[in-house]
């Protein structure tokens, strides 16, 4: 399949999630996965501003990326934070040359094996609601076309998260974002439960829950709650839950 057709498919996939049963958490995970695929990255993570203005990790493609995003927030430095605060893309960062700018984030990223990073704002016009980090194990340089694609993907995410703004009060939009962040807490608890119960890795635990969610048309947060309550142990496709 050529690149242009795949890009078209991805935008159709993202648009298809903008329905009545909009699941913000699953939508953001799809965004990170497709961004990694289309932009030749190795991992991605998204931070969102909650209804109180606090930044939290909302989605990531791996546990390692999530840890780096959390570390970035805790240490109050890094490209994703600068991207969110400025509303501008921060691209083609050579981490070997970034120690002065973000010493703690750079050290942690290099220890994790990453060599370059990019940060893309999630924004609707001047309203920035979050940012996406792309992590690369190799030295990555995004072209102008790549950056335009990355921003388009992020813009679709922002529009999706803010789609009800025209018909609802902004407080309800903030509550939707807060729900996604609260759901993330349940997901993390459920991953720990599956790790202890089944011995799977945290990344595999998430994949099992997400696969079950999609097979059974359930929200990820509902699946996670069932795992925590002990009423569900997701199995790989083809094996009955």
From TrEMBL:
GO molecular function annotations of the record: kinase activity; RNA binding
One of the Pfam families matching this protein, by short name: ANTAR
SUPFAM superfamilies according to UniProt: CheY-like, GAF domain-like
Keywords, ordered alphabetically: Kinase, Transcription, Transcription regulation, Transferase
Domain ANTAR: 167-228
Name assigned to this protein: Transcriptional regulator
Record-linked PROSITE patterns: ANTAR
UniProt source species: Nocardioides baekrokdamisoli
Domain of life: Bacteria
């Amino acid at each position: 399949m050529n690149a242009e057709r795949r890009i078209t498919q991805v935008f159709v996939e993202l648009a298809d999630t903008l329905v009545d049963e909009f699941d913000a958490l699953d939508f953001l995970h799809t965004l990170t996965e497709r961004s990694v695929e289309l932009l030749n990255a190795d991992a991605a993570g998204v931070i969102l501003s909650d209804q109180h203005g606090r930044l939290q990790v909302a989605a990531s493609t791996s546990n390692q990326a999530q840890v780096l995003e959390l570390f970035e927030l805790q240490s109050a430095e890094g490209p994703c934070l600068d991207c969110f605060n400025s509303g501008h893309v921060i691209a083609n960062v050579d981490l070997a040359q970034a120690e002065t700018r973000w010493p703690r984030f750079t050290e942690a990223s290099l220890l994790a094996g990453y060599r370059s990073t990019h940060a893309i704002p999630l924004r609707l016009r001047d309203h920035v609601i979050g940012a996406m980090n792309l992590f690369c194990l190799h030295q990555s340089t995004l072209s102008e076309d790549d950056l335009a694609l990355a921003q388009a993907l992020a813009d679709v995410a922002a529009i999706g998260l803010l789609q009800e703004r025209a018909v609802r009060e902004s407080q309800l939009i903030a509550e939707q974002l807060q729900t996604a962040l609260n759901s993330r807490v349940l997901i993390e608890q459920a991953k720990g439960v599956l790790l202890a119960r089944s011995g799977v890795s945290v990344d595999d635990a998430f994949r099992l829950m997400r696969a079950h969610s999609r097979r059974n048309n359930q929200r990820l947060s509902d699946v996670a709650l069932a795992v925590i309550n002990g009423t569900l142990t997701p199995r790989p496709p083809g094996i009955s839950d």
